[in-house]
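From the thread on structure requests for the teaching lab: each student submitted one protein with a one-line request. Submission from student K.M.:

"Model SUF system FeS cluster assembly SufBD core domain-containing protein from Brassica campestris, tokens only."
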Amino acid sequence: METGAKIKYSTMQKVYVGDEQGKGGIYNFLTEVTQVETGSAITWKYPSMVLESDDSVGEFYSVALTNNYQQADTGTTMIHKGKNTKSRIISKGILAGHSRNCYRGLVQVQSKAENAKSTSTSNSTLIADKVKNPSARVMRVSQKIGKYQLFYFQQRGIDHQRVLAAMIFRFCREIFNKLPDEFGAEVNQLIGIKLEGSVG
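Reply posted by the TA:
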């Protein structure tokens, strides 16, 4: 990248995920930064950035939403080579059904990358009891979406799908705010479709 250059990469994909048992889904592999992944039956994604020029900045924002028997293995690599480089990684996982979501992140600061700075955050929301989240990171569960919370909203005429979608949007808003405006309606639709029947 040239000094002062800026790259913004956004992707949304809607690929056949298979039936409720995970059969017949498409295998998707993309190595290519804002991404919202609602995925395929099995997805691997590892965008990487090399911050070679002095004062260069790299940012990676990701949301991976899995349901039924989907498997997502996502993450990113930031390699700091130049002086005063900065990187930021924010990854969110939303797991429903019997799905599995693994996040892998690598930040590498090379010897000449004086004064490099990096922040990396990865959080997951587990919507069902049978999901697997084998990410190599420290996990703190602050609260499970409970039947009493859903009941509270249902008493006020708000169905559980809308409540769940609102909670997911709040959880992911920092990333959704980075998406181009054209993706707004599409994100709403995809999350609504993906969460159908996912409360368990």
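TA comment: Helices lie at 147-155, 160-176, 184-194. The chain has one domain: 10-194.
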